[in-house]
Amino acid sequence: MVLVLPRRLEMDFGERVKELRELRNWTQGDLGDRAGGYSKSYISQIESSTRPPSGKVQRKLAEAFNLPQYLLLHPSAPTDRLAEISEILEQVAQLDPDQIEAVSQMIRAFQSSRRS
After folding, report:
1. Cα–Cα distances in angstroms (integers) from residue 92 to residues 36, 45, 56, 96, 101, in the given order
2. pTM (2 decimals)?
3. Would you state the pLDDT for residue 3?
């Protein structure tokens, strides 16, 4: 498996939208259609950060990418892993509180071992 990382970890919203669109091989028109009929021009303005989208448009774009809105807005989540992260979060949400605590402890252990 080849891991494709974003150009840089911190991206603004427009850069994130563009990278997610390109990872799916969609045109700006494709994304606009999938998000509810937005024009190619409007998607271009969002991607170039010349026109910030409203919360409603952000939600529609997240839906087009099949991602929760908060992941689309998170500036350091690797764009090529967002669907996987979203799926993991959905699975964790189904666990009981003790299981969630166990998952949280495992994550902390992984993080501390990476720092060592």
Report:
1. 30, 36, 27, 9, 10
2. 0.65
3. 37
pLDDT at 19 exceeding the cut of 50: yes
CATH architecture observed for domain 13-115: Orthogonal Bundle (1.10)
Beta carbons of 106 and 50 less than 8 angstroms apart: no
Sorted by sequence, the CB contacts under 8 Å of residue 15 that are 6+ apart come out as: 7, 47, 49
Domain residue ranges of the chain, discontinuous segments joined by +: 13-115
pLDDT at site 11:
64
Both tokens of residue 104?
A: 């949280």
Q: Alpha-carbon torsion 107, 104, 17, 24, what sign?
A: positive
The token duo for 24 is 């799916």
